[in-house]
Design goal:
Blueprint lengths: L2 H18 L12 E7 L4 E10 L2 E10 L2 H14 L4 H16 L24 H19 L6 E4 L2
Parallel strand pairs: 1-4
Antiparallel strand pairs: 1-2, 2-3
The structure holds zinc ion.
Length: 156
């Protein structure tokens, strides 16, 4: 087995694990920001809840239904952004977006993305890019909105 396919298997394992046991999967009663995301191409739905304290994400959670990639992506996203400042979240989002939308044969820098690098493989499946980025778009919409005026984002 080449190291390339070993790496791919490892990535797949992480995604399957987060799909089966999603982290931070709950409704947050005291969220001060939230948004709903919908990916009509695949049927994925996600609601992202955020408790923002100053410019730091004190707590973040999600609920929803969808394919393994959308759920694992939301799970890994919540793990990655918890405790981060809005500036750091923005940097992570830009890095993630660049990684999943760049051509498969292009080298992308994933070192700063930590575990999020497991989604580098979706570049080879353009229809799954929206599954992987749905939770991120919902998070961005949530941060711009309050919990009372919940935003709805669609990847279409
Ligand atoms: Zn999907």
């Amino acid at each position: 087995m080449s190291s390339d396919s070993e790496l791919r298997d490892l990535y797949q394992e992480v995604i399957l694990d987060h799909n089966k046991r999603p982290r931070n999967y709950r409704v947050m009663e005291d969220a001060n920001h939230r948004a709903d995301g919908h990916n009509p191409l695949c049927g994925d739905r996600v609601t992202v809840f955020v408790r923002l304290a100053g410019d730091r994400i004190e707590d973040v959670s999600f609920q929803g239904s969808g394919c393994a990639i959308s759920k694992a992506s939301a799970s890994l996203m919540t793990d990655s952004v918890k405790g981060q400042s809005l500036g750091d979240v923005d940097t992570l989002f830009q890095g993630f977006q660049t990684m999943v939308t760049s051509p498969p044969d292009m080298d992308v820098e994933t070192g700063s993305l930590g575990k999020l690098a497991v989604f580098a493989g979706v570049r080879e499946f353009p229809s799954r890019v929206k599954c992987a980025s749905l939770a991120w778009h919902a998070l961005r919409a949530a941060l711009k909105d309050s919990a009372k005026a919940s935003a709805i984002v669609s990847t279409e």
